[in-house]
Amino acid sequence: MVSEIFEFLGSLHPLIVHLPIGFIILTLLINVVFKTRNNSVKRLITLGWFFSFISGFIASIFGWFLGDNNYYLESQINIHKWTGFAFVIITFLIWMLRALNFNLSKSFNRISNLVVFALISITGHFGGEMTHGKGYLVKSIPFLKQNKMPTVLLTEKENSLDSIYVYENLIYPVFEEKCIVCHNKKDTYGGLNMDTYDNLIKGGNNGLGISKGNPYKSLIYKRVSMSQNEAKFMPPTGTPLSFDQVAVLKWWIDNGAKLKVPLTKLRNDENIRSLVEENYQLDLREKSYIETLKLAPVDQNQLEVLDKGKYQWRFLNSEKSLLDVKFVGKKITFNDIELLLKLKEHVIWLNLSNCQLKDDMLSLISEFENLTRLRVQKNNITDKCIPYLKDIDNLKELNFYDTLITDNSFEVLTNLESLEKIFLWKSKVSTLGIEKFKSQKPKIEVITGL
Amino acid sequence: MNCNNNNKNKNYSRRDFLTRTSLGLGALSLGGLISPVDAYGNSNFLKLLESEKQRLPHFIPKAKRVIYLFQSGAPSQLDLFDYKPKLNEMFGEEVPKSVLGDQRLTGMSSGQNTFPIAGTLFNFKQHGESGAWMSDLMPYTSKIVDELCFIKSMYTEAINHDPAITMIQTGSELPGRPSIGSWLSYGLGTDNKNLPEFVVLITKGKSGQPIYSRLWGNGFLPSKHQGVQFRSGKDPVLYLDNPPGVSSTIREEQLNSLKKLQQINHADIGDPEILTKISNYEMAYRMQTSVPEVMNISDEPDYIFDLYGEDSKNPGTFAANCLLARKLAEKDVKFIQLYHRGWDQHSNLPRDIIKQAKETDQASAALIKDLKQRGLLEDTLVIWGGEFGRTNYSQGMLKLDNYGRDHHPRCFTIFMAGAGVKKGVTLGATDDFGYNITERPVHIHDFQATLMHLLGVDHEKLTFKFQGRRYRLTDVHGNVVKEILS
Predict the structure, then answer these.
(1) Helical (H) or strand (E) element with B447
(2) pLDDT per residue over A139-149, tens digit each?
(3) Do residues A289 and A372 lie in contact, with contact meaning Cβ atoms separated by under 8 Å?
(4) Which end of chain A is more exposed for a tag (fewer CB within 10 A), N or C?
(5) What is the spatial distance between Cα B224 and Cα B280, in angstroms, rounded to a whole number?
(6) What is the pLDDT of residue A71?
(7) Cβ of residue A311 closer than 8 Å to a chain B Cβ
(8) A141 close contact with B: CB closer than 8 A
């Protein structure tokens, strides 16, 4: 019963604690503002000191009760506690001196005012940090707002997702914010040190921190995901881990809790993927070559070139840097292709079908470095044009239907590393040749038709 | 200053104007400062929407064009794709109340005092490596199932044909919204300047539920985005040819003069529809040569006609239209919409569906194969399906060899093939009675969102402001069906 009363009084500490703050600041203001010191002002000031002392005294007693029920950690409380006591003692002394009509010098007055003001500020600040979390004071300053995203994500997300790791970049920063204050090399509460990966797995006095592949046997996961009303819920103060953070932790443990799991592994799990994508503004999809291309938008003047030739064209992306181009005239010339060369890095898909294309015109095609899809069907082109293609590194799709190419082309075609599809309907290749090519390159799809 | 009231006939001096209207001028400039867009909380969002059209395509498109083989009247999924052996086991028994639920039925069968389960009279087999179930009704399509992506869990709210077709074509059950093809024409513009972006082909001589031109209408979009119907026969586009005695040069001169007059008119009153009219005239002029060229199938080799089937030589049939669709796709027409009527089999379904399947099966499969061998399937999306499904119980008398099926919006099957869609997969499932969806429901709006996505359009960002608010094809609904994207 007695302990319950103490606990109740302790819970009133955050309420009572504002009284001495108000009294002392009012007292100091009166001290500063009133230049004349007649008796009534003096008595008013003395009374102010008394109220500050007595309310501070009650608040500190209540604070003692609150600190006693182990809700807060000793290290968190220390400064707050001792500055608080110092405040009570000093206000008491000054009130006594004033009440006994000691003649206090002006400089003593000033110094004591400053000291008391500093004490109340420090005490109040550290008390605030306990209830509102570390850094509450600066976290909302508009110009100092810190980006919540780990910096490595910011810099790396444009480049390679493979160098971002789930533990290192998504989970550890959460631990750092919420857990490591108490579970570190120095303060190993419960014997747990979450500072390093190995110690995290090992856990503390109560057993395994992380059981790989088994979140419900991992103490750390259990403690952060249990009901917040449980005494064992972690973290004991401050904001708990968010749903998303717990979900990522669970996914990581489910998948073996390895030190180096690249972020790209997340993409196979639709739920966790969308969660992470949304939280960190990432795009975890597997990207094709053209999606990774970063080119400047096509110059408007250059587009006129296309209209001069007999081309039909459109942009493939909103940045207006990738082009899909088709020749729509009856007969193509060297000049037509040369015009297009001015845009060579931008042309991703090119269709030169049914336009009396000649073998040697394809020598110009090899300059289109980013070409992924080339359609030259319905032209009388032969094996001679094929070698021109071998320098285009990212060619994925080739359409040679209704052309004169034969089995002899397969030799060069097997060397096209990125080729995925080739259309050979109505060409001069033989069934045998195709079979052989397929056995050499089983991943390339050969479409022969009908 | 003169303060009497005799101002009526007095010319205003600069000083008078400024004095008397200063308040009004202030209000005017205030109106400029506080733009109505800013008056909303999230003005950036609205500005973003305005600029979105400039940013199209929103992402790299997989598909460049769509061929939509629309099967009007609603083909029976239970006799074609969605194999339910349970229905054959329970042939003639009542559909359990727990399955039927209490949702509305059409007035045509809600009065029935019995809902006897009608199993299918057609044999189902698994085909291809993907093991997709198909009935014997579609032998040709069965052979290409490994190219197809089935969605067996499509659903809609509409229970009758007109709202349902209007829904699937325009995203709303009420008429007046732009058709899918119009939205794409508006958003993505044209690839081939000599042909419309949106072409409609209708199988001739079919009866059944009517097809209205508003289904390919532009709604509130500028009218140049409406679908253009190509007819079979001598005049594919009505009134396109010059009248006898008018040569091409005379027509060109005439159009040029007309254009000047229209431009004067536009400068005068600024109606955007005048610009549409100018572009329509110009398009019609270009189509005088491009349309006969694309509609001429006489130089197609015999093996192509064999592929599409005997019908394909007969203009206006579904097969001939499929062949034309391929030719239009080769010419980069963005949206090619076919309609084939006659699937509305409330009675005599076994007899009628054989005929319908025969008319569409070979040509649909041929179109996909033909596109594939030409490489066109890489950037063409083919869709086959109707506006809703059909019931598992018989409408009217159930006989051992005859039954009918009523409208059933709660589940139906469509299939797609081509650009950006996974091959040889089936998404979603229905219960053992083929009545309710048990897995991955796909709403019409989801389907539309996916279609737009494949063409590089974010369905939430392609909008048009009309009557004070911004509309989109999927209105405020729709999620891209990511599972089927390759």
Answers:
(1) helix B444-454
(2) 677 766 554 55
(3) yes
(4) N
(5) 6
(6) 63
(7) no
(8) no
Quote the percentage of chain A above a pLDDT of 90: 44
User: What average pLDDT does this structure show over A422-439?
Assistant: 93
Distance from CA of A450 to the nearest CA of B (A): 7
The amino acid at A5: I
Closest CA of chain A from B358, distance in Å: 20
Quick: pLDDT tens for A23-38: 999 999 998 888 777 8
pLDDT tens digits along A83-102: 999 999 999 999 999 999 88
Identify the band that residue A361 occupies on the pLDDT scale cut at 50, 70 and 90.
very high
Q: What is the pLDDT of residue B50?
A: 55
User: B378: closest CA among B35, B17, B61?
Assistant: B61
A221 close contact with B: CB closer than 8 A: no
What is the helix (H) or strand (E) element at residue B320, kind and residue range? Answer: helix B318-330
Q: Which residue type, as a one-letter code, is found at position B222?
A: P
Q: Tens digit of pLDDT for each residue in B311-358?
A: 999 999 999 999 999 999 999 999 999 999 999 999 999 999 999 999
Residues contacting B40, CB < 8 A, separation 6+: B46
Write out the residue range of the structural domain in which residue B196 sits: 64-484
Q: So what's the pLDDT on residue A192?
A: 87
Rounded distance, CA A407 to CA A429, Å? 5
Mean pLDDT of A147-164: 58
Residue B362: half-sphere exposure toward Cβ, Cα within 13 Å? 16
Closest residue in B to A318 (Cα) is B55
Is residue B24 domain-resident? no
Mutate to test the interface with A, among B146, B367, B378, B461 (most CBs of A within 10 A): B378
- Those residues whose C-beta lies under 8 Å from the C-beta of residue A104, and which sit 6 or more positions away, are A97, A98
What distance in Å separates the CA atoms of residue B415 and residue B145, rounded to the nearest whole number? 10
Q: What is the residue type of A357?
A: L
B421 vs B149: CA distance, rounded Å: 7
| CA dist list (Å): A112 to A21, A94, A97 | 16, 8, 12
Contact B373/A at CB under 8 A: yes
What would the two tokens of residue A6 be?
Answer: 């103490």
Residue B10 lies inside a defined structural domain of this protein: no
Q: How many domains does chain B have?
A: 1
The predicted structure's pLDDT at residue B208: 86
In this predicted structure, the answer to whether residue A159 has a pLDDT above a threshold of 60 is no
- pLDDT of B1 reads 45
CATH superfamily of A300-447: Ribonuclease Inhibitor (3.80.10.10)
**DSSP-H helix ranges across A258-299:** 270-280, 289-292
Range B283-308 average pLDDT: 91
The Cα–Cα gap between B322 and B365 comes to: 10
Q: What is the pLDDT of residue B103?
A: 82
Rounded alpha-carbon distances, angstroms, from residue B292 to A125, A177, B316, B327, B374 = 84, 72, 15, 12, 22
What are the angstrom distances between the C-alpha of A133 and each of A125, A298, B152, B416?
Answer: 11, 51, 53, 55
Is residue B198 within a helix (H) or strand (E), and if so which, with residue range? strand B198-202
Helix (H, G, I), strand (E, B) or coil at B46: helix
Per-residue CA distances from A70 to A66, A189, A242, B326 (Å): 8, 13, 24, 78
**CB distance A441 to A433 below 8 Å:** no
Amino acid identity, position B449: A
> What is the per-residue DSSP string for A337-406?
HHHHHTTTTTEEEEE--SS---GGGHHHHTT-TT--EEE--SS---GGGGGGGGG-TT--EEE-TTS---
Single-letter code of the amino acid located at B246: V
Contact B378 A397 (CB under 8 A): yes
Within 8 A of A314 by CB-CB distance, chain B residues are 188-189, 191
**Residue B44 domain-assigned (yes or no):** no
In a domain, B42, yes or no: no
